[in-house]
Amino acid sequence: MILKQIEGFNDYKVSNIGDVYSEKYNKFKKLKPRLNSKGYLYVNLCVKGKYSSKIIHRLVAEHFVEGYEEGLVVNHKDGNKTNNHYSNLEWCTLSENSKHS
Questions:
Q1: Among 4, 16, 84, 92, fewest CB within 10 Å belongs to which?
Q2: Angle at CA 4, nearest 5°, toward 67 and 50?
Q3: Any idea what the CATH number is for the domain that residue 51 is in?
């Protein structure tokens, strides 16, 4: 497993296998993701008292999947919206992603 600090959120790290960790208060803790209405896993991250919801597959792709260009979205290759392992994610156009739905 490889961990990378989440850009803009110094107290949080994302792994290449799709887990998100907090290092707040000098404790290393795996965050429990929630399922949104579209079936994707997300976590809430907090900076200076302000919370921000982040979709996990997007975090993993931004930090571990090469090939991003403006306008691209993340596709789950196997169609499983909760499988956020970096090897299951790819950047594609919105129309390409719609074909996988």
A1: 4
A2: 100
A3: 3.90.75.20
What's the CA gap between 20 and 62, in Å, rounded? 13
Q: How many domains does the chain have?
A: 1
Give the structural domain span for 18: 3-100
Model confidence pTM above 0.90: yes
Residue at 39: amino acid letter: G
pLDDT reported for residue 101: 64
Quote the CA–CA distance of 78 and 19 in Å, as a whole number.
Answer: 18
- Residue 61 in contact with residue 15, Cβ under 8 Å? no
- Per-block average pLDDT, block size 10, for the chain (101 residues)? 96 98 93 98 96 98 96 96 99 86 64
Position 99 scores a pLDDT of 76
